[in-house]
Amino acid sequence: MNEPVASAPQTLAQKLIARASGRGHASPGEFVTCRVDLAMCHDSGGPRRLKPMLAELGAPIWDRNRVVLVIDHYVPAEDEDARRIVRIARDWAREQALPHVYDGVGISHVVLPQCGHIRPGMLCVGGDSHASTAGAFGAYMLGVGSTEMLGVLVSGEVWVQVPQTVFMRWSGRLALGVSAKDMMLAMIGRFGVNVGHQQAIEYCGEAVSALSMNERMTLTNMSAELGAQVGLIAPDDETRTWLWQAGERDIELDGWRSDEDAPGVRHNFDASTLPPQIALPHSPALARDVADIEPTAIQVAHIGGCTGAKLDDLRAAARVLAGYRVDPRVRLLVAPASAHERDVAEREGILRHLQEAGAQILATSCGLCAGHGDGIPEDSTVISSIARNGRGRLGPDSARVFLASPYTVAASALRGRITDPREVLWDGDAEVVH
Amino acid sequence: MDKPVVGSGLLQRGRRAALGGVAGHRVWRLPADVDTEALAPGRWMKYGAEVIARHCLESLRPQFALQARPGDVIVAGANFGIGSSREQAASALVHLGIVAVVAPSYGGLFYRNAFSVGLPLLICRDAEAIADGETVSFDLERGIVRCVADAAGQQLRGPQFSCDPIPPFLLAMVRAGGLLPQLKRRLHRPAGDAPSVART
User: Fold this and answer.
1) Is A397–B90 a contact, with Cβ atoms under 8 angstroms apart?
2) CA proximity to A148, closest of A10, A1, A33
3) ipTM field
4) From residue A232, how far is each of A120, A138, A431 by CA, in Å?
5) DSSP strand pairing (A140-143 vs A157-161)
6) Dihedral sign, CA of A388, A389, A395, A401?
């Protein structure tokens, strides 16, 4: 086999790993050791598991400034067990004098970039499968479990197998009422839940460039559902502007993109012809056109989670619901992804539109999507904007959970049955909200 | 150089199949796409590994947690362990005494977690040819799985399936019993090297 030369075309994933591993070139398939720029843990997989293991090792944290703790799973604490878990997290943060702790202010994957922790070019680890969300900003963020996180905390290093890259190129522009969630469900429906086994998926093309950062985060977040090691989008001016607003200056974009002839598998899609998608119970891979499914009555409509309740998701739901009431047989639950998101939605009047439509606003945490709370009755049919619908994900095993975009969830809440949002949206709706 | 004992070591710890007295590992055969929710259900996640293990796979094989015996193996279809980062999906299996998983492919995070908690995973394209209740032997170093008895315990010179090679640093991690004992050993080495995880 020929040694790769430094000038050989490289993917964004290769470049990010090459930097973090201190090499000129990282070849797909190689196992390399990377320096970690940032490690995020949350209250579920974090302190309650890390604290005893760190104590057992008797080792200090390698660099506190590079550790972020987000308490987002067990807040608000619903019982004594949850209170204990949250208490351990808070005590540990104090004992370790962690400088970056976000307690009950939102879901980690949204809070991290919002609070200026993610920049293009970084290599990060997160104790969560949806850590890949940071890829929307051109950062390589690997999901790890608790024991691996322990390894990172004491050494500042993590192993990575340099992935192949699958390029998902989307041409054209999305139609009204169609969003990044539909793109994602279409890809998962076509390729299945593990096409990306340990690979990198890079989203590109006109339709991706046209997406807001919130929408891009939906793609990289749900790369986990495609089985990818990471999901990446090359940072651009949109990224820079968003990060500027989050307080980050001097963002370096140069070079954080795949070279023209970079190796990889390429798939092409046309965004302009994509209709709204829905995944049937109990797998995101069971995606279909919403228009193709049988009439299905729903009892709960849920807008929540790291992928489905960002500001743009709340805006989308409000766009459908403003000025209307949801079907009286439907319970609409909305859990904004972060307190910041909730506050902006409040200022924009979005929250009021949702509440007047009948929405119950829940806490800004993982909530139902982490199996907490009792919002979902046994045997109910649910439509949700979260990322995955494995049996029992929202609580009862007997619940049938459909996955769809916030537009589709809102339209279905309105009609009391699964509904293509294009039936209830028209161009003029945009003005109702703002 | 550590002694290459992983495969044989696990075999020694393995059980002799109840029927026929064939040395090897009883197979729990599972379908494709078994996710972490099935392995470690979300509503039990606030409890310790012992409780989670009692509910491991209850939505697919309600008897699994009750009947799994130390030394058993799981043989599954593609995408075993897809889903969340919860390490308990792998540690629940370790807790129940499962000594290896054989499947055509795994969730990426589950793959990392399993080795971290000392559970070896074999990538075997032909895993689906192995039936529930059969007895297999395996060799991690050579990447081989062999059927040695059928579900009735009848000894057979069964087919031998080859698996992808496991990277040496992951074999070393499994050999050490997982990342935590490995780190412990490294940190408390008198030479006092800076701690290093699973150097590739």
Assistant:
1) no
2) A33
3) 0.87
4) 10, 6, 33
5) unpaired
6) positive
Say what the pLDDT of residue B5 is: 34
Give DSSP secondary structure letters for A355-384. Answer: HHTTPEE--SSSGGGGT-SS-S-TT-EEEE
| 8-state DSSP, A92 | H
With beta carbons under 8 A apart, name residues in chain A contacting B169: 31, 159
Low-confidence ranges of chain B (pLDDT < 70): 1-22, 190-200
- Residue A90, pLDDT > 50, answer yes
Distance from A398 to chain B by nearest Cα, in Å? 10
Distance CA B79, CA A397 (A): 21
* Contact between residue A73 and residue A82 where contact means Cβ atoms under 8 Å apart: no
Worst-scoring range by mean pLDDT, A54-58, A135-139, B16-20, B119-123? B16-20
CB contact under 8 A, B112 and A157: no
Residue A430 has pLDDT above 50, yes or no: no
pLDDT of A419 reads 98
CB B182 within 8 A of CB B172: yes
Residue with tokens 């209830």: A424
Rounded Cα distance, A72 and B36, in Å: 20
Q: A57 and B43: CB-CB below 8 Å?
A: no
Q: What is the pLDDT of residue A396?
A: 87
Tens-place pLDDT, residues A322-374:
999 999 999 999 999 999 999 999 999 999 999 999 999 999 999 999 888 88
Most A CBs within 10 Å, among B44, B46, B105, B174, to test the A interface? B46
Q: How far is CA A363 from CA A77, A202, A304, B162, in A?
A: 11, 32, 10, 50
Residues in chain B within 8 Å Cβ distance of A82: 46
B85/A59 Cβ within 8 A: no
